[in-house]
Amino acid sequence: MDRKEQIKHYLFLIVQKWWGSLLLLPFMYETLQQVYRALRFNIFFMISHEFPFPVNFVHFMTDNFLLIVHEAGHTFFSIAGSRFITILGGSLFQILLPLGIVFYTWINRQKIGTQLSLALVGFSWLDVAGYAADGGQQQLPLIGGLSKESHDWRNLLMDMNMLDYDLQFGIAFAVVGFLFYVAALTVPLYMKEYKTADIAIDL
Description:
The protein is mostly helical. It has eight helices and no strands. It has one domain (18-42, 53-190). The protein has helices spanning 3-40, 45-48, 55-77, 83-107, 111-133, 152-159, 166-185, 187-190.
């Protein structure tokens, strides 16, 4: 095998191992940029950031899926009978459900599934980061045109007497989201793939 063929072979092996990470990079870059601009400059970047195609479509689908999960979380955790847990349930469920998917894909050794679900967890944390950081000002529009008094993180932070720390909560959640993105990108380093083989033995 000459040098040119060796290079092609090595490139093929790299792409074969890392194609999931390469596929996720544009989405991760854009969402991190969105949240950074929202927390650093203006919270309205959480809803006004212009995503390029096809990232905009993926973002739209992911964001709306998590919105449904978020609202379902309020209903699900209302069983606890606690106002605080019911309010927290929306943000909590949109993180716990993707974590459940991570667990399923991990125990079934599904590398791409694990990467995608870890990325979904990271995106959920970033989404919650923007919502939490808006707790003090309540500038972001709420679903169904609800009033500012219905803002989840306004109520949660008020109950904890920490409304002045909304930005700090947002930054902390964004860091967690970033770490899950890193975990998603580096899955090929620590998840081994096993291939099955049929072996016929004539005795």
